[in-house]
């Protein structure tokens, strides 16, 4: 099949005012990518005649399939329908079919149709109506000079239903698409983006199918392999080959793939080793527990935690000796060790992990914001307390602490016989 | 001031593959709107030389201020720096300043700088460096034909810090912006979007400055008031007038404004009433505690929590009577009541809140996924246990539970004398 170029245009002043993000463009692009259709551009313009015409002209000059969302509502500033008609030079005509659907919509909801809504039953001559199962505005498929414009409402669930039920099947039929694209994400910890890329640069450079793209997001790095082939099997084989080469180089840092998270990797390891975990959280305030519990099945290995957000809870409930707090303070190696040891014993789990530190803003008890101790306790022969100095804001310091804790656990568990 | 036209360009193939949404464009647009700068276009292109040049040419032809995010990373597919240099026809030169900041970044994190990272210290001749407080890639302010290009990393928190600390102040100075736009968000709970809209429709309809926009996001609803004026005072007065009219109608449902969250509203009320809180979390798994701890100053009123993710912890640590679990099970009115009472007593707080239920996927102990009990206990005369049936996925059920708990607390606290 010849390569299809796609473009997504979002129309709506609310997008330019930053009141909403253009998640429609993301969703449409993702669906097209998995079908082997390349999206080269996104555009966003407001409800403005001149700029809408400009956007349409631009997209028509460079794309085969143009997906337009927004501006189909009943109000006067919704002008996508009119602008599209003007661009393709065809009149808007009243559609009995659309009118029927509109009427049905309002009857079903025992609401009466306003005059404005009737405007939504106008369709461009020569276009195909896209039924709106969820809302009032119908969409349209508009053929023009061997291209297709697809106009759909900006309301995400209305657009998604139209894409799934009408637009995507239409594209598949029209171009009998056989090409498929498969993507696989390989996830790493304990290695920076630039170091990882250097290690595998040579593989990346000689690779065209699948392509390999390094991605970094705070504290984590991943490689995305994307293969294009005529069958799913073939695409997956292409990916597998390269995956093996990569694992040979940087397999030590690989902790999971695709939807995996460090939390799910840790839960998996705990299950494999048949071990249980409990946590004592101070600055992380429950976030570590929350991340673990987000993994379905965590209840088998995670017993729970105590959030000791005040010293009296560290001593009173967790039973960290008051002498330790008195001598070393709550943000200390000694307190962190005690927290990990006590939670392990109190919850009768195989491993206890503890977090204490200063999230910020501002110093606390003589420590910089970002000073964090993380402890892992199995028994008096097997424990570790690490000190970190993060340099971010309150929320990021707390998230980094959780990630570091999970990273430490991951190393410990994967090194166990 | 002459009208400034702005444009936002997102660079990155991951955007076109739909792996992430272009939230950077939303955030930047929102910040510019509140400063009276009109954003007319968003563009997104991949890491492709030709298309990046095309996007730059287009934006330069129609905007005064061009904000570019993405493609500043250390890897080879990050080419924004080179493309920008090519476009303005100036060389990339090594910046000692940038090198110093990079070095400092790695020293602070006890990591060593890779060869790739050094590429990030290259800046365009004649540009002004934007310090990156959080990551490695510095940004640049590039003056060109009475326009300015601002290039920033795609990592949201790095971009946001650069905008707040460098770019926005720079724009304000450069154009001594006098025409200001002020926005205020009024946040409501316990009222649906359509009901709220009906209550205040008449006010919305006759309002032009400030404008009033209703916004809804899962379980919460807000009204955004946006006023344009020549002075901040004037804009704020315009907003105040309308705010008072709105409060007269729907003030009972108003819990906060702007950056407030239900969590911060609850913390504020606890401080005002001089009360302390503790939590017993089962299905929420620490998320309730995490949300509270996210509010700076929470440590004054939030003592902490116990995450009882297994029955043996409910009975062994929290000391819920085994008979209760045996007779009613962990997901029950009785267990929820006990959890709230025990945590209140154990942590010696004024109020105890408890969460137990089935997050899903799948049924548990004879209960549908989404079955949730939330208990609030002060003393044997003052307590409440509510049952809810949510219908979402695991994560949404857990989040809804936390929000409901905060909502219940908010009502209780605001009704206290």
TrEMBL record, chains A, B:
Residues 7-174 form the MoaB/Mog domain. This is Putative competence-damage inducible protein. The gene is cinA. Belongs to the CinA family. HAMAP family: CinA_B. CDD domains: cinA. Pfam families: CinA (PF02464), CinA_KH (PF18146), MoCF_biosynth (PF00994). The lineage of its organism: Bacteria, Bacillati, Bacillota, Bacilli, Bacillales. Gene3D superfamilies: 3.30.70.2860, CinA-like, MoaB/Mog-like domain. It comes from Streptohalobacillus salinus. InterPro entries: CinA, CinA-like_C, CinA_C, CinA_KH, Competence-induced_CinA, MoaB/Mog-like_dom_sf, MoaB/Mog_dom.
């Amino acid at each position: 099949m010849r390569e299809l170029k796609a473009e997504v245009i979002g129309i709506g002043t609310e997008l330019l005012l930053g009141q909403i993000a253009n998640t429609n463009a993301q969703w449409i692009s993702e669906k097209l990518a998995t079908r082997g259709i390349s999206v080269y551009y996104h555009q966003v313009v407001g409800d403005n005649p001149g700029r809408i015409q400009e956007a349409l002209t631009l997209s028509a000059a460079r794309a085969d399939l143009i997906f337009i969302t927004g501006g189909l509502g009943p109000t006067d500033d919704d002008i996508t329908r009119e602008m599209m008609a003007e661009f393709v030079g065809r009149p808007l005509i009243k559609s009995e079919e659309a009118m029927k659907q509109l009427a049905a919509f309002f009857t079903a909801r025992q609401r009466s149709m306003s005059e404005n809504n009737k405007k939504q039953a106008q369709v461009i001559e020569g276009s195909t109506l896209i039924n709106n199962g969820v809302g009032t505005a119908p969409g349209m498929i508009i053929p023009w000079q061997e291209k297709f414009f697809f106009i759909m409402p900006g309301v995400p669930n209305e657009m998604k239903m139209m894409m799934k039920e009408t637009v995507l099947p239409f594209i598949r039929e029209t171009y009998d698409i056989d090409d498929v694209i498969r993507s696989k994400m390989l996830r790493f910890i304990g290695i920076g983006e630039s170091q990882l890329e250097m290690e595998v640069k040579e593989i990346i450079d000689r690779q065209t199918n699948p392509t390999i793209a390094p991605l970094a997001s705070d504290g984590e790095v991943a490689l995305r392999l994307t293969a294009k082939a005529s069958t799913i099997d073939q695409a997956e084989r292409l990916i597998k080959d390269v995956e093996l080469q990569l694992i040979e180089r940087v397999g030590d840092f690989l902790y999971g793939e695709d939807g995996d998270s460090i939390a799910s990797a840790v839960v998996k390891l705990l299950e494999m080793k048949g071990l249980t975990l409990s946590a004592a959280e101070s600055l992380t305030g429950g976030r570590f527990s929350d991340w673990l519990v987000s993994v379905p099945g965590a209840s088998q290995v995670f017993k729970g935690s105590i959030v000791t957000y005040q010293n009296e809870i560290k001593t009173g409930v967790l039973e960290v000796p008051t002498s330790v707090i008195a001598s070393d303070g709550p943000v200390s190696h000694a307190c962190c060790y005690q927290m990990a040891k006590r939670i392990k014993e109190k919850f009768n789990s195989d491993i206890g992990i503890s977090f204490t530190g200063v999230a910020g803003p501002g110093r606390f008890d003589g420590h910089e914001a970002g000073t964090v101790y993380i402890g892992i306790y199995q028994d008096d022969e097997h424990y570790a307390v690490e000190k970190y100095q993060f340099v971010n804001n309150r929320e990021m310091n707390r998230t980094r602490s959780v990630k570091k804790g999970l990273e430490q656990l991951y190393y410990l568990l994967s090194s166990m016989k």
